[in-house]
Design brief:
The complex is a heterodimer. Chain A is mainly β. Helix content of chain A is 0%, strand content 55%. Chain A has strands spanning 4-7, 10-14, 19-25, 32-38, 45-51, 56-59, 62-67, 72-77, 86-92, 99-100, 104-109. In chain A, strands 2, 4, 5, 9, 10 and 11 form a six-stranded mixed beta sheet that branches. Chain A has a five-stranded antiparallel beta sheet with strand order 1-3-8-7-6, with no helix packed on it. In chain A, strand 9 and strand 10 (99-100) form a beta hairpin. Chain A is globular. Chain A starts with a strand and ends with a strand. Chain B is mainly β. In chain B, the strands form two sheets. In chain B, strands 2, 4, 5, 6, 9, 10 and 11 form a seven-stranded mixed beta sheet that branches. Chain B has a four-stranded antiparallel beta sheet with strand order 1-3-8-7, with no helix packed on it. Classes of the chains: A mainly beta, B mainly beta.
Chain lengths: 110, 116
């Protein structure tokens, strides 16, 4: 079955710098790759997603890239701000279920 | 506000007891998912219901059970509780069964279960 690996588990960056979180997946049938953000004390919330027929997608300071050949996708956050501090989860969908990565705790240092 | 309502927000109980967690999905959403999140852990998928029928099963223990009612709300029943069952339990809903459209999940704020 599908397996999603997410790295790093913790990422600490200076405010204003960029952050990159990477995920790899194993099942080439996966066709949908969302990223969720979980703030402290809250449930995860979708922040951006990408489908397998697209290589990159941007939404203001957030972008996701997908390399289907290498089976990996990444979340890029530019000009990080304190409110970006959270746990980020990637996921892949090979059929009708999401397979989740283990999460990355992003810490923004002032 | 995601539109998904979970009750109770906090629950403290003893080992061996049974509890019921309740979830009301977003208006119009037919799918309900239950997830377990232990301290500093990822999201463990437990079970999904779509329009009253079980759609998919994940790592749900036999001591746990769930159902979705005709009004689409769902309940997760946890019995013979153990210390290791202490966790955040999230409910999420989506408009579809999965595999079509964006498949966005809308999460509630969770029910924090503490087993003493």
């Amino acid at each position: 079955g599908e397996n999603v690996e997410q790295h790093p588990s913790t990422l600490s960056v200076q405010e204003g710098d960029s952050a990159v979180i990477k995920c790899t997946y194993s099942d080439s049938a996966s066709n949908y790759f969302p990223w969720y953000k979980q703030e402290l004390g809250k449930g995860p919330q979708l922040i951006i997603d990408i489908r397998s027929n697209v290589g990159e997608k941007k939404d203001q300071r957030i972008a996701v890239t997908l390399n289907k050949t290498a089976k990996h996708f990444s979340l890029h956050i530019t000009e990080t701000q304190p409110e970006d501090s959270a746990v980020y989860f990637c996921a892949a969908r090979p059929n009708y279920q999401l397979i989740w990565g283990a999460g990355t705790k992003l810490i923004i240092k002032p | 506000d995601s539109g998904v309502t979970q009750t109770p927000k906090h629950l403290i109980t003893a080992t061996g007891q049974r509890v019921t967690l309740r979830c009301s999905p977003r208006s119009g959403d037919l799918s309900v998912y239950w997830y377990q999140q232990s301290l500093d852990q990822g999201l463990q998928f437990l079970i999904q219901y779509y329009n009253g029928e079980e759609r998919a099963k994940g790592n749900i223990l036999e001591r746990f059970s769930a159902q979705q009612f005709p009004d689409l709300h769902s309940e997760l029943n946890l019995s013979s509780l153990e210390l290791g069952d202490s966790a955040l339990y999230f409910c999420a809903s989506s408009v579809e069964a999965g595999g079509r459209g964006t498949g966005e999940l809308f999460f509630g704020e969770g029910s924090r279960l503490t087993v003493l």
